[in-house]
């Protein structure tokens, strides 16, 4: 059944591309170019008429019809104006909040089912026309009977089934890439899809999204740079979420921001600070920061405040990844390319046999051209392409757990490019990372570690005299031993024991074969010992033991 569903989905994709006149895009793929002639043999292209709409609009309409996964891909691309032709970038920007909505009747039915009562009993006012309609859900303005203005987010009906079908197709395509493309194994496409599956399925649970919003709101409770609306938990369910309504200017509305005399340089700098704060200090970051989810509070034009919504996708990093990335950023900003190369080797991302000096030289060649340039003159798309070529040369493996961070970095660059192209990204980020590194490995780290572990120390202090006495007593009696409970250690022990046993059997078998050969050629005591039968028996036993010792692995 799954195979049939995949074939049907592939057929649907092809049909949609053809209907919007995008079938020629397939043959722009390098390995499909030799088959481009087939496009002109297709019956629907025999009488190709002039396109009624420009290509950007046709691409946008196709993505909207293909569904949420493809819409989100278009949303990510819309932030990369430097990588797309202007006509396509403008059209894809409409995917942020202009996806066709589902009907008001469906929305009200889903809300009433979740709340267990009519909409009129929950809300004093409910706006039929949605404020915005996105790929996964749409939002309506409303007012609670207690007087608070809120927004109601409702999942699209049947969206779970559509997403799961598209994920099946993505797994198929990822498997084909990993199987038949020479770069596939290094890029781990199946693992990347698995990571993406986890994130997009998380978006289907609005309770999880509400919890994410609450966490980020707590993280910035003492920091005015980012405001997160409050959640109304009594009205929040798996497919319906109610949160505080915010009144801000969409960050993509540059004209409105200018009308409020917003300090664009400061706004861009705060955006970078918010990103690094979330990643390295809180280790919990908003991973869907496209323009449709970010607003600006213009109350203080010289110190503007960001306002964020849509927390369906968030990211976290392991302590190892976080520390590794911070050190890389710090070394990178200081142009310490040798340290960057050493960190890549130490992390296991490239082979330990890699020559550090060669990798250092390759990173320097990719990085030096972009330093001391304003954001408007830097293309991270080009920079990442150069790094990708370097990674391929040194067989560096893609890390799926960092996909969200990479996506967020691209979103941040897109926002910064729109707001203040002259932003010095390095000068803005470097002081933050210097302070963070000091907190991790400097004097602040020592104080912080002592503070964090003080409760445990106080708790165990009464038992320390007894523990010290037991240890000293066992040591004096020669009974102080280490207990190894690691499964890996036990496995190694078993393998060593097996290897020793097999070696002994091999030696015994070889010895018996030698003895058999000697008794066969010997004329001593022929009648007493029965030389021929004995040598045959010894030879058979010796050969059996030798073969068992050599080929038995367990």
CATH class of the largest domain: Mainly Alpha
Helix content: 55-70%
Contiguous uncertain segments of 5+ residues: 482-486, 527-531
In angstroms, what is the radius of gyration? 33 Å
Q: Mind telling me which CATH architecture of the largest domain this is?
A: Orthogonal Bundle
Question: How many domain units?
Answer: 5
CATH topology label of the largest domain: Transferase(Phosphotransferase), domain 1
Number of helices: 25
- The counted number of beta strands is 11
Structural commentary:
The chain starts with a helix and ends with a helix. A hairpin with a 4-residue loop joins strand 3 and strand 4. It has helices spanning 2-19, 23-26, 37-41, 55-66, 68-78, 86-93, 104-115, 119-122, 159-180, 184-187, 189-202, 206-219, 254-259, 264-282, 319-333, 337-347, 356-367, 380-393, 403-419, 425-441, 443-460, 464-476, 487-521, 526-529, 531-551; strands at 123-126, 132-133, 137-144, 149-155, 226-227, 240-244, 249-250, 285-286, 294-297, 305-308, 314-315. It is built from 25 helices and eleven strands. The radius of gyration is 33 Å and the shape is globular. The chain has 554 residues and is of the alpha+beta class. The chain folds into five domains: 2-93, no CATH class; 104-157 and 205-315, Orthogonal Bundle (Transferase(Phosphotransferase), domain 1); 161-199; 319-444, no CATH class; 487-551. The strands form three sheets. Strands 1, 2, 3, 4 and 6 form a five-stranded antiparallel sheet that branches. A four-stranded mixed sheet has the order 5-10-9-7. Helices cover 60% and strands 8% of the residues.
């Amino acid at each position: 059944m799954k195979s049939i569903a995949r074939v049907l989905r592939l057929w649907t994709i092809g049909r949609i591309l053809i209907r919007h006149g995008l079938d020629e895009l397939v043959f722009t793929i390098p390995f499909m170019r030799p088959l481009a002639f087939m496009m002109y043999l297709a019956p629907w292209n025999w009488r190709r008429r002039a396109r009624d709409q420009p290509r950007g609009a046709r691409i946008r309409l196709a993505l909207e019809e293909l569904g949420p996964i493809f819409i989100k891909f278009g949303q990510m691309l819309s932030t990369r104006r430097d990588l797309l032709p202007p006509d396509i970038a403008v059209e894809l920007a409409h995917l942020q909040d202009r996806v066709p909505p589902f009907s008001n009747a469906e929305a009200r039915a889903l809300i009433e089912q979740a709340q267990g009562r009519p909409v009129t009993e929950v809300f004093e006012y409910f706006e039929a026309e949605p404020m915005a309609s996105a790929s996964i859900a749409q939002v309506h303005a409303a007012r609670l009977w207690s007087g608070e203005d809120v927004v109601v987010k409702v999942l699209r009906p049947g969206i779970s089934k559509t997403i799961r079908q598209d994920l099946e197709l993505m797994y198929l395509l990822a498997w084909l890439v990993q199987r038949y493309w020479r770069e596939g194994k290094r890029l781990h496409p199946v693992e990347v899809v698995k990571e993406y599956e986890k994130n997009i399925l998380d978006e289907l649970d609005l309770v999880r999204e509400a919890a994410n919003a609450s966490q980020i709101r707590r993280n910035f409770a003492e920091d005015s740079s980012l405001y997160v609306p409050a959640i109304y938990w009594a009205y929040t369910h798996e497919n319906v979420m109610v949160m505080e309504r915010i009144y801000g200017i969409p960050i993509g509305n540059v004209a409105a921001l200018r009308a409020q005399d917003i300090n664009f340089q400061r706004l861009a700098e705060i955006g970078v600070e918010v990103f690094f704060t979330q990643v390295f200090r809180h280790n919990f970051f908003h991973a869907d920061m496209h323009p449709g989810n970010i607003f600006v509070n213009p109350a203080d034009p010289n110190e503007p405040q960001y306002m964020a919504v849509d927390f369906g996708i968030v990211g976290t990093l392991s302590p190892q990844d976080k520390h590794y990335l911070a050190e890389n950023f710090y070394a990178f900003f200081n142009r310490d390319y040798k340290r960057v190369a050493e960190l890549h080797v130490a992390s296991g991302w490239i082979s330990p046999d890699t020559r550090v000096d060669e990798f250092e030289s390759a990173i320097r060649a990719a990085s030096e051209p972009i330093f001391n340039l304003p954001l408007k003159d830097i293309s991270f798309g080009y920079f990442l392409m150069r790094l990708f070529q370097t990674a391929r040369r040194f067989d560096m493996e893609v890390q799926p757990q960092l996909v969200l961070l990479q996506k967020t970095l691209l979103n941040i660059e897109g926002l910064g490019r729109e707001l203040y192209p002259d932003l010095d990204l390095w000068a803005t980020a470097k002081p933050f990372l210097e302070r963070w590194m000091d907190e991790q490995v400097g004097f602040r780290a020592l104080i912080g570690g002592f503070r964090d572990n003080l409760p445990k120390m106080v708790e165990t202090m009464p038992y320390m005299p007894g523990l010290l006495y037991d240890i000293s007593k066992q040591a004096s009696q020669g009974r102080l031993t280490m207990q190894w409970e690691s499964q890996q250690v036990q496995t190694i022990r078993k393998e060593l024991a097996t290897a020793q046993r097999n070696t002994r059997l091999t030696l015994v078998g070889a010895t018996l074969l030698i003895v058999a050969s000697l008794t066969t050629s010997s004329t001593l005591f022929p009648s007493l010992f029965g030389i021929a039968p004995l040598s045959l028996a010894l030879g058979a036993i010796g050969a059996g033991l030798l073969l068992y010792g050599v080929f038995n692995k367990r």
